[in-house]
Design a protein that fits this description.
Blueprint lengths: L2 E3 L9 H7 L8 E3 L7 H7 L4 H13 L5 H12 L10 E5 L2 E5 L9 H19 L3 E6 L3 H10 L5 E8 L5 H8 L6 E7 L2 H13 L1 H7 L1 E3 L5 H21 L5 E6 L4 H12 L3 E8 L4 H8 L1 E2 L20 H8 L4 H14 L2 E2 L2 H10 E5 L2 H15 L5 H13 L6 E5 L7 H5 L9 H4 L9 E4 L2 H14 L3
Parallel strand pairs: 4-14, 5-6, 5-8, 6-7, 7-15, 9-10, 9-14, 10-13
Antiparallel strand pairs: 1-2, 3-4, 11-12
Helix pairs in contact: 3-4, 3-10, 4-5, 5-6, 5-10, 6-7, 10-11, 16-17
The structure holds pyridoxal-5'-phosphate (PLP).
Amino acid sequence: MNFVSTRGNVTKIGFIDTVLMGLANDGGLLVPEKIPQISADKLEAMSELTYQELAFEIFSYYVDGEIPDNELKALIEKSYATFRHPEVTPVKKVKDNMFVLELFHGPTFAFKDIALQFLGNLYSYVSKKTGETIHILGATSGDTGASAIEGVRGKEGIRICILHPHGKVSKVQELQMTTVDDKSVLNLAIKGTFDDGQRIIKELFADMNVKNKYHLRAINSINFVRILAQTVYYFYAYFQVKKELELQSVNFSVPTGNFGDIFAGYLAKKMGLPVGNLIVATNENNILEGFIRDGVYEPGEFRSTYSPSMDIQVASNFERYLYYLLGEDSKAVSDLMEKFQSEGKIVVSEEQLRQVKVDFAAHGVEGEECLQTISKYYDETSYLLDPHTACGVAAYERCNDSSEVCVTLATAHPAKFNESVERCNIQQTFPEQISQLFNKPQYLEVVEADKDEVVRHLETLFRFTAN
Ligand SMILES: *Cc1c(COP(=O)(O)O)cnc(C)c1O
């Protein structure tokens, strides 16, 4: 299968080159040239597969033979063997018409592990095949960093540098990232927000001199493989719910920041999965809600919230959606993104806005509403939601028709965000893997949110670890 850039200025490339390129060289995002279509019969046949078997089927459409089947199967097996639940992403019924899809059974207790365990193994596979050292650079709002480090630590031929917003991640998130004592891992705590970190890495990835000199590789959801790995659980959840209930389609409510996870749901729908409404749940950083309501996408003032992994103003993957909204017209996407650069906002036409409203519903959840949702579900169902999942559940309550069935994505384990859970006067016990983090020394450097300063640190990391 070939992949193209949303901005149209990259020659078609295959799957592995797409993974290695990360951000498209023209500053756009890579998307499949043609989205594979899965027939109803094929879906039926897929419905009995295990998570790993399903992942293999779905990945195969995109990998398209570039990795031999037995090797792809081995990569998948290895990636999900680290999960604590045999089903990988189990589905739990919480209310008659609402299921929670638990995505937090991986090593770092957040959904990012599902894609990043696989991506870590894939990078290692590529490094072994080509002899190339993989230099990873990523920005995190908290979970990607820990998950990416966990996905690559101890693997030969890989170095990783992660930028996180200093003091703006939860304690457990910070500990998970910074207690790894490994010379091939560098944590930079930048004096700024996630958006600053994401901007810096996008600038570095778009600077061909830097990108080529250091062979920079991406682990953020600008990397298409992140999206691909996340489509699998939409299929898996649909099949599990369908075993319990007669239904035509399922809605999904998705706690959203960078628009990666919800875009994976959009892709699954385009592949033929009977998805009804896709509900975008945000916190007070709610530009996506504004876009879906008014057709105006305009980043505003950054807000720190109870759900820090969603404290994002500029949603990278939004460009992938725009590409489809504009009828796969890369010239139109380019023009619009250029306008966004100069004017700071994107406005779509009336007609396009109608399509947006067909594709998505949205609700921006305020802090109090988030906490009340945690308390309410804990009282009524004994199910403890993490603050991100709580935003998803609050959006389900607001946007889901009572006659329809909704799956809310549980993107993190509540133990990762005890600061927020404590505010609800709920005492939780930490899983052993989390409580043991508190006694470990931390390794990080606090730096200015400045591209050149980040480059200086990369120099040191890559030179130091090269021999
Ligand atoms: C990353 C993250 C999100 C947001 O996912 P996107 O793909 O960036 O939209 C939501 N919840 C948690 C817990 C996360 O770590």
